[in-house]
Amino acid sequence: MGGRNDVPPHILTLSGKSQRQYEEYFKSAFLGAEYDPLVVPDPNSKDFKLPDLSLPKSMTLERLQDRRSF
What we know:
Helix content is 13%, strand content 9%. The protein is built from one helix and two strands. It has a two-stranded parallel sheet. It is extended.
């Protein structure tokens, strides 16, 4: 059915490092990467960051604002 209101249709939360070993079992395999779940790492970690929702290192904030103004 797809995502609704900008929320991914599949989210995988892992509570600890011991569960990270099972992450590959929940990937979409032959369906394609667009069907992979959004993997949310432990939010209690010091360097918590969602890679799928972060800007690439090559994209500066100024460049993003320039694109928005376009």
